[in-house]
Amino acid sequence: MEYQLEKISVMTEHDRELFARALNTLFTSTFIIKRIDRDRELYRFVTANFELFETYLSLASWQIRKDEHLGVISCAGPGSGRNQLNLDETLSLLVMRLLYEEKQQEINLSGENIIRQYEFHEKFKVLTERMLNKTRMRDILHRFKLLKLIDVRGDETDPETVILLYPSISFVLDSETIDEMHDRIKELTGQEGDEEKNWDSADAEALRNGDAAEGDPDADADGYISAEAEEETDA
User: Fold this and answer.
1) Is the separation of the CB atoms in 166 and 49 below 8 Å?
2) Which stretches of the chain are DSSP H helices?
3) Which of 216, 213, 215 lies closest to 232 in space, CA to CA?
């Protein structure tokens, strides 16, 4: 552990700035997503120095997880710090997760999982036998944007508006099979008066421990990989 933490003292000024920015991003928005332009440099830096971040965060009982196939890094603290979702938000998350899985099966040259808002409403109504008004839908979209689960490209009240489903949405529900998600929606829509749900109650474990990267040839004598070395590797 001490060896890992000593790496911070030999970082360049630029890398120390990246280290601080990456931690702040994880603490405030849970996810660093490679697909997002402003996250890309941070994603590369954290991935290259994953064991250092894992050790540093463990001191405060935080956990970090990465999935290089999806291009997502996430972290979470003790259970008491988890985000709270109400019933409509929990149902919306489950429906969007189902739509994400469906889009994953389609051929898409852009590599993005995109839906129109009306597609979500149709799926939501069929699965839940409920409807969301414009105000509620706008609030849900805004909340999910803050949680870095989606991006909205257009007017949040327009049925034709594009919703980009980030791969982070599979992190909060990655233990669910399609059938389990359908069953969970039926279970939740059968409950009355239970307005506050958290991600745990939707079986939405935000993360699990990730495997630290090992043996990178660009690591220097002190063991951490600088942002400059990482850029050369990508080139």
Assistant:
1) no
2) 2-6, 13-29, 40-48, 50-58, 87-104, 117-128, 134-146, 168-172, 178-189, 227-234
3) 216
CB 199 within 8 A of CB 172: yes
**Radius of gyration, alpha carbons of the chain:** 19
Q: Report helix, strand or coil for 152.
A: strand
76 bridge partner residues: 63
Tokens 């099979």 label which residue? 177
235: part of which helix (H) or strand (E)?
none
Summarize pLDDT for 121-172 with one digit per residue, the tens. Answer: 999 999 999 999 999 999 999 999 999 999 999 998 899 999 999 999 988 7
Residue type, 107: I
Q: What is the pTM of this model?
A: 0.74
What is the β-pairing status of strands 162-165 and 150-153? antiparallel
9 DSSP assignment: G
Query: What one-letter code names the amino acid at 40?
Result: R
Q: Are the CB atoms for 25 and 39 separated by under 8 Å? A: yes
Q: Measured between alpha carbons, how far is 191 from 229 in angstroms, rounded to an integer?
A: 54
